[in-house]
Amino acid sequence: MSAARPTDIACQEVVDLLTDFLEGALDRKTRTRLEQHLVLCPGCTEYLRQLRLTIGATRRLSEAEIPEQVKEQLLDVFRHWHRGVE
Amino acid sequence: MQAAWKFLAPGQVAPFGGVRWPVPDRGAPAPWFRPPMGEVFACRVADLPWWLDAELWEVELEGPVSTLESQLVAPAGRLLRRVAAWDTSALHDYGAACARRARELAVQVLLEEGRAAEAELLANPTGLLEMARVARTLSADASVRRGANLAGYVAESATRAAQGAGAAAANIAANAAVIGRRQPSAFDLEREWQARWLAQRVGLPQH
């Protein structure tokens, strides 16, 4: 039901824009369109809320809180990932 | 200084920035609020349908105020008073009023298409859910053409209104107006009608 007005924005586009939105990197027109979409769309509003919670939680993490074994496992996964191997 | 209106989430929280606005104390205006992002946004009456939220406040804006397409922006603002008449009941009634307007338009189009029986069916329901049910049935009938398309919008608008999603119900009704009246400007005209409805319901000056 969101196609009749050219300024409307789709949920998929919102997902793509939310990181820039949270970083204040969107131009005013795009930010306004995104915010107007959020007023109408509880799904995207919830997604934004969860994104904010995740960012807040990761900000509270410090390196010292990661057990050495988990750290090694993560680094191993990232090393293989960069080589294109799962 | 410019008076304007501001929708906030419950607890006087800015809906997108997540920051809590300071509140008035014993009838005195709240302290000036200068958010970390550097700008405050507020509404003229005409902007209200775009920004619905749980609380509606009268605000005063300070500094150079810019008028954008659907909002005002200024360096600072402060809350003056909460508009008590804006509550869940008003939101529900607003969504219902918008859905009923979409229904009126659909009935008119069905009559123009010579579908008097379908028009009468759609005109009869008094409850939102029954309106949605009838409209959904009509929308499945491809033989009623533009009227069927509009009935789909009525079904969706009435459903959202019944769920308390007044902003969505209103947006769908404005999109329905474009189809029903076959004019792109019908969207903005519908938004103007919605703004007048809101202002009248909660007692805002309409200028």
Task: State the helical fraction of chain A.
Answer: 55-70%
Name the beta content range of chain B.
5-15%
How many beta-strand elements of chain B?
A: 6
- Rg measurement of chain B, Å: 19 Å
Tally of alpha and pi helices of chain A: 4
Mean pLDDT of chain B: 94
Q: Helix share of residues of chain B? A: 40-55%
How would you name the oligomeric state of the polypeptide chains in this document? Answer: heterodimer
H/E element string of chain B? EEEEEEHHHHHH
Give average pLDDT of chain A, whole number: 83
Distance between the termini of chain B: 16 Å
Silhouette of chain A: elongated
- The first-to-last residue Cα distance of chain A is 40 Å
Backbone CA Rg of chain A: 18 Å
Structural description of this entry:
The complex is a heterodimer of chains A (86) and B (207). By secondary structure, chain A is mainly alpha-helical. Chain A has a domain at 11-61. Chain A is 69% helix and 0% strand. Chain A has 4 helices and no strands. Chain A has helices at residues 11-22, 28-40, 42-60, 68-82. Chain B has 207 residues and is α+β, with helices and mostly antiparallel strands. Chain B folds into 2 domains: 2-84, no CATH class; 89-202, no CATH class. Chain B contains 6 helices and 6 strands, in the order ββββββαααααα. In chain B, the strands form 2 sheets. Chain B has a 3-stranded antiparallel β-sheet, with no helix packed on it. In chain B, strands 2-5-4 form a 3-stranded antiparallel β-sheet, with no helix packed on it. In chain B, helix 3 (128-139) runs antiparallel to helix 4 (145-162). The two termini of chain B are 16 Å apart. Classes of the chains: A mainly alpha (86), B alpha+beta (207). The A-B interface holds A 1-2, 4-5, 24, 28, 32, 35-36, 38-42, 52 and B 15-16, 18, 37, 50-53, 68-71, 153, 156, 165, 167-168, 171-172, 174-175, 178-179, 187.
List the helices and strands and how they pair.
The complex is a heterodimer of chains A (86) and B (207).
Chain A: H1 11-22, H2 28-40, H3 42-60, H4 68-82
Helix pairs in contact in A: 1-3, 2-3
Chain B: E1 2-8, E2 40-42, E3 55-62, E4 66-67, E5 72-74, E6 76-82, H1 88-112, H2 116-123, H3 128-139, H4 145-162, H5 166-181, H6 186-202
Antiparallel strand pairs in B: 1-3, 2-5, 3-6, 4-5
